[in-house]
Amino acid sequence: MSAADQIFAMLRESSQSGAPLYLQLRKSIEEAVNRGLIGPGDALPSERDIASKADISRVTVRKAVQDLVKGGVLVQRHGSGTFVAPRMERVEQSLSRLTSFTEDMARRGMSVRSVWLDRGLYAPSPDEMMVLGLSSTELVARVARLRIANDTPLAIERAALSASVLPDPEAIGSSLYAALGTTGNRPVRAVQRISATNLGDADARLLEVPSGVAGLQIERISYLASGKVIEFTRSVYRGDAYDFVAELRLTGPGEEIRP
C-alpha cells in the first residue's frame, strides 16, 4: 500500500470523529509519520492528489499541511514539494554544568562549527549597561554565532561583554570561553533563565525551521570567581533538538537552597 493510500485509509477511520476535515487530515498524516508508514525524507502526495482522492478541497489540504509544517512534522522545499521532516537527534544538556557549546558537543563526539553573524564593538544598550555595569561612554563587545553540530544548526548565541575584557572580538577562535580563559576571564558560574518562544522569521531561517515554530530562549549572566559579571548572553535554541536537564535534591529541615 502506498503512502497516499495509508493516509487515506487513516482518514476514513477518523471520518466518524466529527472533527473539522483539516484536523482529521492532519491527524491522519501525523499518525502515518509516527507509525513509520512514511519516513523521513519521503515525499507527501501533492495537494491536488490528496484533495482528489480524499474528496476534500485543496484549501482544507493546505491548512492541514501548513499546520504540520509549523509543527516540524513536514518540511516544504520550494519547487520540490512537501516532505516528511528528518528526525532530529535530541541533545540533552545539564543545567548544573557551565560549559561552552564547543566543549559540550565535543564530549558527545559531534563535529562542531560556527557561522559568525556579528563580531564588533558597539555603544552599549540599556540592558547591557545595567547587567555588565558599563557607563554610557564605554563600549561593549558583541559576538553572535550560528552554532552547528553534525551539519544541523542548533542555536543562535548572542553574547555581550565589556570591551575592556574583549577588546578585539575578531580574535576569537572556535570558543569564546577558551579565549576568555587565556586572559583569566573565563566565568566560573552563571544564572540562566529559560523561556518558551516562537521563532521569528530571521532566526527561523538561520535554524532552518519554519517561522513561528517553538524554540527555547535562554538568557545567561555569567560571573567570575570574584562575583563580577563577565558575560551577558541571549540565545535561541531549536525546540525540537534540545532537552535541558536539572538535578533536584530534597533539602533537610533548615537547609538553605543555594543557586
- Low-pLDDT stretches: none
Distance between the termini: 56 Å
How many beta-strand elements? Answer: 10
User: Fraction of residues in helices?
Assistant: 25-40%
- The CATH superfamily of the largest domain appears as Chorismate lyase-like
Elements, N to C (H/E): HHHHEEEHEHEEHEHEEE
**Broad CATH class of the largest domain:** Alpha Beta
Secondary structure category? alpha+beta
Overall morphology: elongated
Strand proportion, as a percent range, falls in 25-35%
- The overall pLDDT average reads 82
Query: How large is the count of helical segments?
Result: 8
CATH topology group of the largest domain: Chorismate lyase
Largest sheet: 6 strands, antiparallel
Radius of gyration: 23 Å
Named at the architecture level, the CATH assignment of the largest domain is 3-Layer(aba) Sandwich
Total tally of structural domains: 2
Side by side, the strands of the main sheet go: 4-5-6-9-8-7
